[in-house]
């Protein structure tokens, strides 16, 4: 029972970290959408890079590494939900790809094109936030119900092993000023 509780708490904390990091990124672009004069190309690019990094880290979450496969082994009940979650992610990736190709031109033109890109990225963040909410509200209850205690023990062991491995391989902190790391820190805290 302890492994079930450990896994559950770890997954919920991981989910909260992801939501907080993504919400910070979304807020930046929402502000840029309403007032594009306060956003420069370098700041925009950094935040876009943070979002791209977020998307890459999302695939290394314990949920995707260990729980998704366990659910798929236990039942087909979640197959359509998993497909819908993948669709939300695919849509977000398409938006990011379009934004990257239009970034330089938008900043040369300024104003409305920059606001349009901010709106597109805000939509991307909304899709990913919806995905996180649906994982928590719809997928977690299925996982808690269909995954066996033995499998939860296995998942807890994998999480512990993965977490210990991550701690050993993390690079030492750089001497970059703290203000440059605020959001990057929120995103890299998601290192699972």
Task: Draw up the topology in text.
Blueprint: H1 2-34, H2 41-58, H3 62-74, H4 79-109, H5 112-146, H6 149-169, H7 182-188
Could you characterize the architecture of this molecule?
With 192 residues, the protein is an all-alpha fold. The chain has one domain (2-162, 181-188). Helices cover 82% and strands 0% of the residues. The chain is built from 7 helices and no strands. Helix 1 runs antiparallel to helix 2, helix 1 crosses helix 6 (149-169) and helix 4 runs antiparallel to helix 5 (112-146). It is elongated. The two termini are 23 Å apart. The model is unreliable at 170-192 (pLDDT under 50).
Distance between the termini: 23 Å
| Domains, number | 1
Structural class: mainly alpha
Query: Strand-and-helix sequence, N→C?
Result: HHHHHHH
Helix content: over 70%
Largest sheet: none
Specify the number of helices. Answer: 7
**Rg, Cα atoms, Å:** 18 Å
Q: Which term fits the overall shape?
A: elongated
Q: Report mean pLDDT, rounded to a whole number.
A: 84
Unreliable stretches (pLDDT < 50, length at least 5) are 170-192
Count all strands and give the number: 0
Share of residues in strands: under 5%
